[in-house]
Structures are given as C-alpha cells and as structure tokens.
Amino acid sequence: MRIVLASLIVVLTSSATLAAPIHNPVAVFRGLDKITGRIITFDVAIDETVQFGALQVTPRVCNTRPPTEPEQTTAFVEVDEITLANKVQRLFTGWMFASSPGLHAVEHSVYDVWLINCKASLEEMSTEPRGPEPLPELGAEEAPEEDQPPED
Q1: Which 3 state secondary structure label does DSSP give 116?
Q2: Distance of CA 65 to CAs 19, 53, 62, Å?
C-alpha cells in the first residue's frame, strides 16, 4: 500500500511542474461600442491606462505560457468608468482569460471589453486600425471597353 501511495505522489508531483508563465509588457484588448456597433482592438502597456469610451482600462499583469505548454493567456485588469458627474467608479478588478472572453469580460451598458492576447514587446504595438487598401485607379488605356453596337 505504501508503494502505491508513494508512486501516486511521485506521478502527481511530476505532472504538476509546469513552466513559469511568460510576463509580457503589452496586453491586447477588444472593445465593443454597443451604440455604434463598432469593434476596436487596442494595445495597452502594463501599468498604463487607455480610455475606451467612458471606460479606463489598466492591465497590471499579462501572462502567456511557453510554446511547449497548452496555450493560456491571462491578465489582471482594472477597469474604471468615468461617470457623467466626472467621478471615477471601479467596474472591474480581476483576472481575464483570453480563451474564455465571456467568463470575466467587462459588460457595461454601452461598452464591452475583453482580453484577446498579450504581446512580447512594445514594438509590436499596433497603431490605429486601418481598413483595406483602396483599389488602384484604372487608367484610360486600362479602362474596360463599353458595349457598343458593331460599326457598319
């Protein structure tokens, strides 16, 4: 019985040793403005605050796992609302999980915010989202031929 118990302890402790999480300097969020229907992706450096509508989002930690482990992205986040009376009201303090955005997302009457990823460097921070590139203009020689009746 002791041998079985000892081997069970060895198996459990060896499988529980996971690699340390990777601490990233940038958290990536997605926000929804329910009034306009606009969805925006924005990057926030750790311990910096970014305003999304009436919400202020401040990530304190953003962790990922090494590539050899199952994917898991987590962030400890504080979200405040600027009220109409210009007061700051805390809406959320806690962990967000990118794999389960509905579990700990911020659901506000006008705005929703959730974690989607972490980034390893500030150089990877994106600028304002862009739409698709415009199509090139057709020149006179490239203009499509119009349907015209045959000449007699």
Answers
A1: strand
A2: 8, 31, 11
Radius of gyration of the chain (CA): 25
The overall pTM is greater than 0.85: no
* Domain ranges, ordered by start, for the chain: 19-120
Summarised one tens digit per residue, pLDDT across range 71-103 is 899 999 999 999 999 999 999 999 999 988 777
**C-beta atoms surrounding 42 within 10 Å:** 18
Sequence-ordered strand ranges (E) for the chain: 22-23, 26-33, 38-45, 50-52, 55-64, 74-82, 88-97, 106-107, 111-119
| 29 touches 46 (CB < 8 A) | no
**Cα–Cα distance, 55 to 58 (Å, whole number):** 10
- In angstroms, rounded to a whole number, what is the distance separating the alpha carbons of residues 94 and 78? 7
